[in-house]
Write a structure and sequence with these properties.
heterodimer, A: 387 residues, Butyryl-Coa Dehydrogenase, subunit A, domain 1, Butyryl-CoA Dehydrogenase, subunit A, domain 2, Butyryl-CoA Dehydrogenase, subunit A, domain 3, four-stranded mixed sheet, four-stranded antiparallel sheet, 11 helices, 45% helix, 14% strand, globular, B: 315 residues, 2 domains, three-stranded antiparallel sheet, 57% helix, 10% strand
Chain lengths: 387, 315
């Protein structure tokens, strides 16, 4: 067994992050007043290009990337501070989130110089938002089974297939898609490649998939005989699996994997009030202690990433525990401060009943997106040497 | 700094591996004092370790081996005496908080510090006190002290026990973290060896998920203990002990489930670990106790201070 996989060395943020944190808090407090955004309980719900552009003006999108590509060359720990403050405040960050978290870093690592020059500065300017093109109707957890095909043709690549659960494809600009470019061969991870899709100009079909809250966030993206230029291949042909795995590591390791319902926790404390009974004290204390512990673990993962390590197993542990904690917030709230939850699409109230309603309805997606609980447990099992 | 810590860990691991076995456990449970083990500890001076980082590391190691020795208690008591400006004697020591009941290792302690509810610290020579023996589920001495007419060798009024109760909780949390590490390693190993339906049970997804869960609890407790040791205060220690106490029961249940009937026998030593977990989770405050302590603080601070307070307490 590799016991190092279970080590989360305490990480102390460098002192310069104090000023940055203060800047973010002051920005958030001004922005909340100016734009009157309602805190959301989940980072995946607040889509605001205006808000994203304001963050971009501050240099807080792609902030770790080289200046040549519009970045600010800040550290991963500085980025961690910015992201956790935005998430804890329930700020509407989703427009730029995927591009900042995984698509940009993927292009930085595997993209061509031309791709980086063209795309990255648009991302850091808050003008280019990305969707994830991984899942398909028959490929969810078993991502290597994707059937979308890309064939070399004279004009470039010919794509055929369909992607699903593609959040915000109808309003975003680009999507990185995983497609099969040749037979898998022995290990079934071979023969995959990643491509850049222009969601605005490419000849694709985007069909809404309304989720159980009644909201249109998901889409089906149909690629029917779509020809894209040769230079849209990202990285190397046939190495898509290795690339997509590194993309997933970015997707899984952040503080959004335990902070999704943080806003409900905050509201719960206020709903309980300043004179709690013992049951309420115990329940609030448990959640507060768990939040602190998870943040220590998450910060430790961020420090490992900053040190150039690949904490895949650690990230899986934090996501699994974090997702569990997110649900515990809602269930604890029910126990100590019962309220009939309400939800009204498009006009939901940010009071305790409304936050609870939305949190309950969004909850099922938390343990699915970014890899299911079951997949996280397989990754941990592999770390234990069981697979 | 971390180099020194590595050395302590390596040397403690070797020391306990050399001395702690089933025979020693049985002898101590029968009332014997593990003199050889204690001599080995004092020969390298572990009992004089400073309280927080080194003390926590050593406590974790005693947990890994469920070593039947009051090393953690001695380190804690030394920190109490030092804080009070008193001389620290040699020999095993223990501290009783509040009531004089279920005091760890009192019968073998050469020095016993008592701190009562009104802030009186009184230090006694162990030999002068009568002890009514008791033990926890794991067979570790938990004795009742009868003061009788014994005179303290030192007495200080207005002494706050709070921070020592917290450090005691951190030490027990560290012991739990160590025991969980061993429980995880042993359970993974057993699942790889035990065959049913023609293959190791570790190959079954249901078992893998149990073990992943166990690994998650173990990682969480170790992380919380490490973070609390690096920045000890009421909030961090309460979080760590709460987390440890809650995880102890969950982990013990998984370990027994995976081990099956063999783990329920006297012969197999899984029970030494799980009995310790079931004892230590209550000692120095259960999760309910510590949760209520910090829950009261979170409630009075209000929702808007929740996040700033969490962040101020780490990183």
């Amino acid at each position: 067994m590799n016991t190092n996989s279970l080590r989360f060395p305490p990480s102390v943020l460098p002192p310069e992050t104090e000023n940055l944190r203060a800047d973010v808090r002051s920005f958030l407090s001004d922005a909340a007043t100016a734009d009157a955004w309602k805190s959301n309980s989940d980072f995946g719900t607040g889509f605001s290009p205006e808000f994203s552009r304001k963050l971009a003006e501050r240099g807080w999108i792609g902030m770790t990337w080289p200046r040549d590509y519009g970045g600010s060359e800040r550290s991963n720990l500085e980025r961690y501070v910015v992201t956790e403050e935005l998430l804890a405040a329930g700020a509407p960050v989703f427009a730029h989130w995927i591009a900042d978290r995984q698509s940009g870093p993927l292009l930085l690592r595997y993209g061509s110089e031309a791709q980086r020059r063209e795309i990255l500065p648009r991302i850091t300017a808050g003008e280019c938002f990305f969707s994830i093109g991984m899942s398909e109707p028959d490929s969810g957890s078993d991502l290597a089974s994707v059937r979308t095909k890309a064939e070399r043709v004279t004009a470039g690549w010919l794509l055929n297939g369909a992607k699903v659960w593609t959040s915000n494809a109808h309003v975003n600009h680009c999507m990185i898609t995983l497609a099969r470019t040749s037979e898998a061969g022995g290990d079934r991870h071979g023969g995959l490649s990643q491509f850049l899709i222009d969601l605005v100009h490419d000849d694709i079909e985007i069909n809404p998939i309304v989720n159980m809250l009644g909201a249109h966030e998901f889409n089906e993206v149909v690629l029917d005989e779509v020809t894209i230029p040769a230079d849209r291949l990202i990285g190397k042909e046939g190495e898509g699996w290795q690339q997509v795995t590194s993309e997933l590591a970015y997707e899984r390791s952040g503080p959004e994997r335990f902070l999704s319902n943080f806003h409900v926790f905050r509201a719960l404390i206020d709903a309980v009030g300043s004179e709690p009974n013992v049951q309420q004290e115990e329940a609030l204390g448990r959640l507060a202690g768990r939040a602190w512990t998870l943040r220590c673990m998450s910060l430790s993962v961020a420090a490992m990433l900053e040190a150039g390590e690949s904490p895949d197993i650690e990230a899986a542990i934090v996501k699994e525990l974090g997702n569990r904690f997110e649900r515990e917030i809602v269930e604890t709230a029910r126990q100590i401060c019962p309220i009939e939850p309400v939800f009204e699409i498009g006009n939901n109230q940010a009071d305790f009943a409304g936050l609870m309603g939305e949190a309950i309805l969004r909850q099922p997606s938390f343990t699915l997106r970014g890899g299911t609980t079951e997949i996280m447990r397989s990754i941990i099992s592999r770390g234990l040497g069981l697979r | 700094m971390s180099g020194e810590l590595d050395l302590i860990n390596q040397s403690a691991e070797r020391l306990f591996a050399d001395h702690v076995d089933a025979e020693l456990h049985d002898a101590v449970a029968a009332g014997e004092w593990p003199a050889e083990l204690w001599d080995a500890i004092t020969a390298v001076g572990f009992e004089r370790a400073e309280m927080t980082v080194h003390g926590v590391a050593l406590a974790r190691m005693t947990g890994r081996f469920v070593a039947p020795i009051p090393l953690a208690e001695t380190i804690l008591t030394a920190s109490v005496l030092k804080e009070a400006g008193l001389e620290v004697p040699s020999g095993p020591m223990t501290t009783s908080f509040g009531e004089l009941q279920r005091v760890p290792w009192a019968r073998h302690a050469s020095c016993i510090a008592t701190i009562n509810d009104i802030g009186v610290l009184a230090v006694f020579e162990g030999a002068k006190l009568e002890c009514s023996p008791g033990c926890n589920l794991a067979g570790e001495p938990r004795d009742t002290i009868i003061l009788g007419s014994a005179k303290p060798i030192a007495r200080i009024d207005g002494f706050s026990a709070d921070s020592f109760l917290e450090r005691g909780a951190l030490i027990r949390a560290a012991q739990i973290s160590g025991a969980l590490e061993t429980v995880l390693a042993r359970t993974v190993q057993y699942a790889g060896e035990r065959k049913q339906f023609g293959r190791p049970i570790a190959k079954f997804q249901a078992i893998q998920h149990h073990l992943a869960n166990l690994a998650g609890y173990t990682a969480m407790v170790c992380a919380a203990v490490d973070a609390a040791a690096a920045a000890p205060d009421l909030f961090s220690i309460a979080s760590a002990k709460s987390c440890a106490s809650e995880a102890a029961g969950e982990a013990a249940a998984i370990a027994h489930q995976v081990h099956g009937a063999i783990g329920f026998t006297q012969e197999h030593d899984l029970h030494r670990l799980t009995k310790s977990l079931w004892s230590w989770r209550e000692e120095f405050g259960s999760e309910s106790y510590w949760n209520a302590r910090i829950g009261a603080i979170a409630a009075s601070a209000g929702g808007k201070n929740l996040w700033p307070n969490l962040v101020a307490r780490s990183g």
